[in-house]
Amino acid sequence: MQRWKIGWRMMALGCGLALAGAAQAQRVELKIATLAPEGSDWMEALTAARAEIQEATEGRVRLRLYPSGIMGEERDVLFKIRAGQLDGAGLMGVGLIRIVPDSQVMMVPLLFRDYDEVDATLARMHDHLEAQSRSNGFTAMAWTEVGFAHFFSTVPVRNVADLRGARPWATSEEGMLGAFFSAARVNALPVPVTDVLTALQTGLLRTVYAPPLGAVALQWHTRVRYVNDLRLSYQYGGLFIAERAWNRLSPADRETVRGIVERRVKDLNRIVRERNREAMEVIAEQGVEVISSSPEARAEFEAVRERSEATIVGRDFSREAWDRVQGILRELRDDAGPDS
C-alpha cells in the first residue's frame, strides 16, 4: 500500500511538472523590428498594442520592439528573421515586396482616384495578399498606410512635358515608377534618400515625390515651390510575423493578438490619413503653391501608366493580381456612375 501511495505521489508530481512546463511553453516573446522612429505615430501604435496584448493574454504573449532601424535596413531584418534572431517586422520597402510581391499591385502609379477606391480594393484583395504572405512563411498581421505620394518641385509640373524638363528623382529600387518614367521618356536621377534635400538645394533635382507627411518629415517641402495635387501613387506597408513564431501561440492567443493589432492599426491608419491632410495644409501655408493637372494632362499621365504595364505586369506582380484589381475598379466605377 505504501508503494502505491508513493507511486500516485510521483504521478501527481510528474503531471504537475508537465502542466507547469506547458504553461511555461505558452509564454512567447515576439521580437519585432521597424524603421519607424521613437515618438512616431507608428511606434506609439505598436507600443500601445504591446501593453494591451500583454494584459489581454495575462503575460503569455509579449512584444519586444526594436524601433528606428536599430536592427538594420529591411534586407538585414529579413535575414535576422530567417536566422531566428527576430520574429517579425513592420515593412514597407524591399521587405514588403519579398514577402508579398503582389502587394505592389496597389502601388501602381495613377491607379486609384481616391481613398474610397483604395479601401474597397484592399479589402477585396486581403485574402489573396495574406495567402501569398503565408506561402512565403509569414502571417500578415495588418496593412499600415503611408498615403498618396505627390510631385513636389521647384518648377511647375502639370503634365508629362513639364516632368521631362523637371529633373525628377528616382530610387534604384523603384521598379514601377522607373518603368513609368521610362514610358514617359523621362530621365530620372537616382539619388539616395539621405542626399535628396541637398540635391534640391543645389538644383541637381527639381522634382521629388512623397506623401505630404513624408515631405515634411524629410524637410523636402522647405526646398520646393510647387506641389501637384495629382495622386501619383498609393504607398503602404505591413506588419508581419514569421509563421514559425506565430504558431508558438495558442489558437486563442493568436485570435486575441490579431484582433488587438488590427484594431490598433485601423486607428493608426486613420491618424496617418489625417496627418497627411494636415501636412498638405502646412505645406501650403508655408508658401508652396498647390497646382492641379487638367483632365487632359491626367489622361496623358494615365496613358503613360498604360504603356508601362507591359513592363511591370508579370515582373513586379502577377497577372492574376492585376486582373483582380482591374476587375474591382471597373465594378466600383460602374457602380459610381459616369460622373465619378
Summary of the model, kept short:
This protein is an alpha/beta fold and 340 residues long. Helices cover 52% and strands 17% of the residues. Strand 1, helix 2 and strand 2 (61-66) form a beta-alpha-beta unit.
Explain how this protein is built.
The chain is α/β, with parallel strands linked by helices. It has one domain (27-336): D-Maltodextrin-Binding Protein, domain 2, CATH 3.40.190.170. The chain is built from 13 helices and 10 strands. The strands form 2 sheets. Strands 1, 2, 3, 4, 7, 8, 9 and 10 form an 8-stranded mixed beta sheet that branches. The longest helix is centred in the C-terminal third of the chain and has 35 residues, at 251-285.
Figure out the total of helices: 13
What coarse outline follows from CA principal-axis ratios? globular
Taking Cα atoms only, what radius of gyration do you get, to the nearest Å? 24 Å
Q: How many separate structural domains?
A: 1
The biggest beta sheet reads: 8 strands, mixed
Level-1 CATH class name: Alpha Beta
Mean pLDDT: 91
In whole angstroms, how far apart are the ends? 87 Å
- DSSP, total strands: 10
Protein topology:
Layout: H1 2-25, E1 28-34, H2 41-56, E2 61-66, H3 74-82, E3 88-91, H4 94-99, H5 115-135, E4 138-153, H6 160-164, E5 169-170, H7 175-183, E6 189-190, H8 196-202, E7 207-210, H9 212-217, E8 226-228, E9 233-242, H10 243-246, H11 251-285, E10 289-291, H12 295-312, H13 319-336
Parallel strand pairs: 1-2, 1-3, 5-6, 8-10
Antiparallel strand pairs: 3-9, 4-7, 4-8, 4-9
Helix pairs in contact: 2-11, 5-13, 7-12
